[in-house]
Design a protein that fits this description.
Elements (H helix, E strand, L loop, with lengths): L15 E4 L2 E13 L2 E13 L5 E4 L6 H10 L2 E5 L9 H7 L4 E4 L3 H7 L8 E2 L12 E6 L7 E6 L4 E3 L14 H10 L10 H5 L5 H13 L4 E3 L10 H8 L11
Parallel strand pairs: 4-5, 5-6, 6-7, 10-11
Antiparallel strand pairs: 1-2, 2-3, 3-4, 8-9, 9-10
Length: 256
Amino acid sequence: MSQEAVELYEPIQTLKPVADDIWIADGPIVHMAMYGAAIPFPTRMTLVRLAGGALWVHSPITMSSTLKTEIDALGPVRHLVSPNKIHYTHIAPWSRLYPEAIAWASPGVYERAASQNIEVVFHADLTDEAPPAWSAEIDQLIFRGSRFMDEVVFFHRQSRTLILTDLIENFEAEKVSGVYRQLIQLAGCLHPDGKAPLDLRATFWGRKNEARACLERMLAWAPERIILAHGRWYDRDGTQELRRAFRWLDPGRPTR
């Protein structure tokens, strides 16, 4: 499947403000081996400037000279976050650019990197509790229940922004084409009804109670925005979108 099957969120590799002290940067297409094909995904990272000026980078994308210049103008990069075991491949090159940054490992990422023969060094593990470096500004929890992958989710209190990775994907029909659009629709990730893809939802079978407990904690944060790694993110009505996207956890409501 070619890159032309999905459009980028132009301009890419440049910072786009979300609210005070939080930005996103859309990245180039990556291809993942799925369903016997190389499936294209648009990418997105989130950057937060902490109170002391240090920069916290969630799921770094491919670096460019323009992006580096913009980032360096904001402050020193001190935290590189892998939110789940799939989103880690750019941690190593960013660590070489910013050797003083701490690389934070998500559950299962060590094993994933080893299985793909990708060399990456992590300095600390993410847990259900935010570390002191950002606990006053960013909440976090490990979203549990999947037999395949745990994802660490984050909530930036100042902007009331929930930062997710693959737990919601929200592809716009006009940005995808051909067989890829059919796959996205089958997976249940087509805007305006984006959610976790069907194959990921299936891995929660028998463990949805764990996931519901995590969802309740996320709802208690009452997010106003939700940033996603793939597809259109939600710049308003965050709590409402969160309830909608996770209705598959309620057996009394349809999953798609």
